[in-house]
Amino acid sequence: MPTLPSSPVGFNLLAWSAPISEKMHPITERLKTIGYDGIECFIDYQDVAAYRQFGDHLRQLNLQSTCVMVMSPDENPASDSRQIRDQALTRLKEAIDRAQAMGASVICGPFHSAFAMFSRQEPQPDEYERSAEVLHAAGEYARQANIVLTPEALNRFECYLCNTMSQLLELVRRADHPNVRAMFDTHHANMEEKRFPDAIRTIAPVLAHVHISENDRGTPGDGHIPWDDTFRTLAEINYTGWMTIEAFTRNDTAFANSINVWREYNDPWDIAENGFTFIKTMQAKYAK
User: Fold this and answer.
1) pLDDT per residue over 148-162, tens digit each?
2) Higher pLDDT, 282 or 264
3) Rounded to whole angstroms, how far apart are CA atoms 248 and 13?
4) CA separation, residue 285 to residues 108, 218, 220, 235 (Å)
5) For the residues 68-97, what does the mean pLDDT come to?
6) How far apart are CA 7 and CA 33, in angstroms?
7) Could you read off the pLDDT of 114-160 as tens digits, one per residue?
8) Is 171's pLDDT higher than 70?
9) Which H or E run includes 77?
10) β-pairing verdict for 38-42 and 242-245
11) Residue 249 pLDDT more than 80?
């Protein structure tokens, strides 16, 4: 039986809000009480000071942090426009500054290309090269901040450049920087991968972040994600990074509308409480 080392467990605040503020303090305090090791928050365009203040609050609670971000069409690392790629690098550096101010260790998300923008053709080799060039430069900037960048493969309805772990592995290898790794998201893999164990083993050499997300984005363990395959294979590869729940609601309607979330899946506290118990149960199952 493979042994799953102890991985920290996080919760993404997007279940309540994209912007961070003092309104999130009671939520993070309750997440701490549940037993979470850290929180994940969305990086937007708020001033760096807002992230520093939020980081101070998390440190007082002894909570660690990670971040997630997306890129707009005007900040597309895969673009054939040098100006747009330069803007992409600027955006990534600004995100790194904000994450560093908060004390975060990881920035994840589909920042290899613009979110929900499609070229109407299969991804081209030069697009991977352009994206990798930007990611390498961003990785060099992230090195001084002691932050790991973990680009994410999304499903075909949200992204065309990276849908699978094999595509993501190719991109990360082209980026060729120790601070540019990869993440695995169970929700997207449910649509794009043939078998979870094969996908996880494929990305294992560069895997540094995992999103625990149910097929409907509700409470982990309530749907049909192959969780035993997931946790068993993570144990086999000795994964020790974050296991962070990413689930969505309509609490932040502007954010929900932007990602096509049109109904409630579960109450956010049901997701947080039962999801935490589920992850701990699965970790214990594969720690025997």
Assistant:
1) 999 999 999 999 999
2) 282
3) 9
4) 27, 22, 16, 10
5) 98
6) 18
7) 998 888 889 999 999 999 999 999 999 999 999 999 999 999 999 99
8) yes
9) none
10) unpaired
11) no
Strand 148-151 to 106-109 pairing: parallel
Is the model's pLDDT at 4 over the cut of 90?
no
How far, in Å, CA of 80 to CA of 64, rounded?
37
The neighbouring-strand residues paired with 244 are 10, 211
Q: State how far the Cα of 106 lies from the Cα of 142, in Å rounded to an integer.
A: 10
Q: Is 138:180 a contact under the CB 8 Å cutoff?
A: yes
Percent pLDDT > 70 in the chain is: 98
77 closest CA partner among 65, 69, 87: 87
Q: Dihedral (C-alpha) 175, 159, 118, 80: value to the nearest 10 degrees?
A: -10
Main-chain dihedrals φ then ψ at residue 275, nearest 5 degrees:
-65, -40
This prediction has a pTM of 0.95
CA dihedral 15, 21, 26, 28 (to 10 degrees): 60
97: nearest Cα among 141, 63, 132 = 141
pLDDT of residue 288: 60
**Structural contact between residues 148 and 181, judged by C-beta atoms closer than 8 angstroms:** yes
Domains, the chain, with CATH or none: 9-285 (3.20.20.150)
Burial of 285 (0-12, 13-18, 19+ CB in 10 A): middle
Q: How far apart are CA 8 and CA 37, in angstroms?
A: 6
Neighbour-count burial of 1, counting CB atoms closer than 10 A to its CB (0-12 exposed, 13-18 middle, 19+ buried): exposed
2 falls in which pLDDT band (50, 70, 90)? low
Under 8 Å between Cβ of 219 and 180:
no
Q: Which amino acid is at 258?
A: S
**109 vs 116: CA distance, rounded Å:** 13
Instruction: Dig out the tokens for 258 from the structure.
Output: 């932007």
Helix pair angle (48-60, 82-102), 10° resolution = 30
